[in-house]
Design brief:
The protein is an alpha+beta fold. The protein is about 15% helix and about 20% strand.
Length: about 725
């Protein structure tokens, strides 16, 4: 077994790149060409891109500081939307479309009676068997109140097949003190006049309708007015017997419609967790934010659709999710593998070497890599590799290529597993004497030790579509590569080449912003972690860095349609709303742990976080552009706490691998949304790890590793009193 410590490439005695070194890096950024290699392991100059970019060079021209004159926006200004979510008719009628998927129970069912001991989670956030076909639908809500009439009509849209017996409950019955888990004032069926007024509804038709003219939340019934709250709870039933042999009867999400406005993420207030729109300040993902959850399933919160999702996009979401959970070895779904049908198209597509057979096995519950025991194989993390070439270029490792694929289909294949052999430990002392132990992993390779490498944990996959939707000028406005404002924080955009077109785009995804789009990210992960090819990387030789890996390749393993489905799924995953508000649980009822929060402490922590100037990199608020093909993601005010730029984080966090234009100490600002849900998603605080390689076990440790441009902010945090540091952590855990 070969053991090695991570090494650091540095400039100067401190190991931190100097201002001149950063200027050199930025000069390289703005002079890269399509043949210069901006992808993982790529170098600069005339060496071929290891991922096989097309040959036509594109030479961007620098303008001022941090702005590139010749780059291609990820989405053209005239990009059409896939479907409309809301519009107003000439007479003032507001028309809103709401997508819906099947689930197993109601939103406020906790797995036991409200006043009973905890026996486990509810089943509201679950995905029933066969969820990915014939079971998505939506509502067209025609709100005539803004037009001066007392009427709302709801039309059922079925995406596929036929529904028979769908019911529709609405208006939460808050006047009944016994209503807790469920209970609505109005229950309807969608009767079809073309089917003898039976509740039989077909795909592609708009004939199943119902309407109401009063606010059934009140007694006696009062006229509808703008701002009234309507809880919507449809429950579909497939035509019997079910067309595909799966289950027939399902529930669906309980959504909040506000008269005259549209769909809104909600939380529970008195009495009995009544639905109330969440304040804008809590909507980390804008209107795509996931509502507060009261079925005690915080471990599933990263797997939910954007709250404002459309009807057609709901189908795209579930189809892509199926692929994300499918094994490329046997085609089985990770959930209910003996009940869900086998995805035969993907049987046997796994390569001879790989890390895992499913995407979900690295991104556990859409969260981060599972934490391996010391000495165990790190096959849910990525180990990127390279070797130094001429003129500062980084070339693929001669044994591993661009990354170590630790598993093999053949029992006679060499063992290339990587593990943590030991940890180097240091201690930081904070104000008041509190000590924080920092641990740095020392890795062991069963195969040859690569000369250059970087270990990466899989990040959570929430909100990626929203980040994809932020317009380039918004991000570039945050860049300050020459530190003109003198705050010690620079921020450099990472320009990367699209491996399919050679166009220069702004990097957004990956720990070093080496991927320009979700399509790019998905294609890269498929070929590197599973040896599954796609239109992005159509040959397995792309993983080995072959310069011509796109030439003469045969049919791809994952089709263009399926690649798009997976990209769409990732784009449409919602972001949990910030848990900074107390919910209206009845007196004497146990408060779910994820909602047992202190709003005053969180608010104080938010102020201190900004005062420590952590927001210089972790930008609190961005607005998405208006060119993304999904209307759900356009013009959203989001709070991701990232600027998506590269920052020098000092030698403490540096490894030995340069990627594209990102030196070993330069990292993309990681989004902070979802931090507080990790302990639930990962199965306990002991399973949560932070930073690119997962070395930090706590947020205090993660902060302690911040060096380079973040040194001053770290010092400010560590100088706070114990009480103030507690407030900052409470704020971060509310995100």
């Amino acid at each position: 077994m070969n053991s090695t410590k991570p090494t650091t490439t540095s400039s100067g005695s401190s190991g931190r790149p100097s201002a001149s070194a950063l200027a050199t890096v930025f000069a390289a950024v703005v002079s890269l060409t399509a043949c210069g290699g901006s992808s993982e392991g790529g170098g600069t100059g005339s060496s071929p891109s290891p991922e096989g970019s097309p040959n036509a060079p594109i030479t961007p021209t620098p303008v001022g500081t941090g702005v590139m004159a010749e780059y291609s926006p990820l989405f053209a200004a005239d990009t059409p939307i896939t479907e409309q979510l809301q519009y107003t008719e000439p007479d003032g009628t507001l028309v809103t479309f709401m997508g819906a998927r099947p689930t197993e129970r109601h939103a406020r069912e906790r797995g036991e009676a409200w006043d009973a001991p905890d026996t486990g989670p509810g089943r509201y956030f679950t995905f029933p068997t066969f969820y990915f076909q014939n079971r998505t639908f939506g509502l067209e809500i025609r709100d005539e109140v803004p037009a001066g009439r007392q009427r709302i009509e709801v039309i059922l849209h079925v995406n596929d097949g036929t529904f028979d017996g769908t019911t529709f409950s609405l208006f939460r019955n808050i006047n009944n003190p016994n209503v807790r888990d469920f209970g609505w004032s109005l229950n309807y069926g969608f009767n079809n006049p073309n089917e003898g007024n039976k509740p039989i509804c077909h795909a592609g038709e708009r004939t199943c309708r119902m309407s109401f003219t009063s606010n059934w939340r009140t007694s006696p019934h009062s006229p509808l007015k703008i701002g009234d709250k309507i809880e919507l709870a449809p429950a579909p039933r497939l035509q019997r017997p079910a067309i595909d042999g799966g289950g027939e009867r399902y529930y669906s999400f309980e959504q909040l419609y506000v008269v005259g406005k549209g769909m809104r993420p909600w939380y529970g207030i008195v009495p009995n967790l009544d639905s109330e729109p969440l304040p804008d300040s809590t909507l980390l993902g804008g209107q795509a934010s996931v509502s507060y959850n009261y079925s005690e399933e915080p471990h599933r919160v990263f797997q939910q659709m954007a709250n404002n999702i459309g009807i057609g996009n709901t189908k795209r979401f579930v189809q892509g999710r199926r692929l994300f959970h499918t094994s490329f070895a046997d085609g089985k779904h990770s959930e209910h593998p003996n009940t869900n049908p086998v995805f035969t198209e993907h049987v046997g597509q796994l390569g001879p070497r790989y890390n895992q057979a499913r995407c979900i096995e690295c991104h556990a519950a859409n969260g981060r890599s599972p934490v391996p025991a010391q000495g165990a194989r790190l096959d849910t993390l990525s180990v990127l590799t390279g070797v130094a070439g001429g003129n500062g270029a980084v070339l693929p490792d001669p044994t591993y290529g661009l990354n170590v694929q630790q598993r093999a289909s053949s029992t006679t294949a060499p063992d290339y597993s990587v593990s943590v052999a030991s940890y180097e430990k240091t201690v930081r002392t904070l104000a008041g004497g509190e000590q924080v132990e920092l641990v740095k992993p020392v890795y062991a390779f069963k195969g040859p030790v690569p000369s250059l490498y970087s270990v990466r944990q899989a990040p959570q996959v929430i909100g990626m579509g929203l980040l994809e939707a932020v317009a380039e000028p918004t991000i570039l406005a945050l860049a300050d590569p020459e530190d003109k404002n003198g705050d010690g924080v620079r921020g450099v955009p990472h320009w990367v080449n699209d491996p399919e077109t050679g166009k220069v785009h702004l990097g957004r995804f990956g720990w070093k912003a080496t991927k320009a789009s979700l399509r790019h990210q998905v294609g890269d992960a498929l070929v590197k972690d599973m040896s599954v090819t796609s239109p992005v990387f159509p040959s397995r030789s792309c993983q080995q860095g072959a310069p011509d890996c796109r030439n003469g390749a045969g049919a791809t393993a994952v089709s263009a349609e399926e690649l798009q489905r997976m990209s769409d799924y990732l784009a449409l995953i919602g972001v949990p709303a910030q848990r900074s508000l107390r919910s209206g649980y009845p007196e004497g009822i146990r408060v779910s742990p994820e909602h047992d929060v202190n709003p005053e402490l969180i608010a104080r922590g938010s102020v201190l976080f900004a005062q420590a100037q952590c927001t210089s990199c972790h930008t609190a608020q961005l607005t998405t552009g208006n060119t993304h093909p999904f209307a759900e993601l356009r013009n959203q005010t989001i709070r991701p706490y990232t600027d998506m730029l590269l920052h020098d984080m000092g030698p403490e966090l540096a490894d030995s691998l340069t990627e594209g234009q990102a030196a070993p100490s330069m990292w993309r600002t990681a989004p902070l949304w979802g931090l507080g849900s990790l302990k639930y998603v990962q199965g306990g605080v002991q399973n949560v790890r932070y930073l690119h390689d997962g070395r930090a076990r706590t947020l205090n440790e993660a902060i302690g590793w911040h060096g380079g441009e973040a040194s001053a902010s770290r010092a400010r945090y560590e100088a706070l009193s114990k009480e103030d540091r507690t407030a900052v952590i409470a704020f971060l855990e509310s995100l």
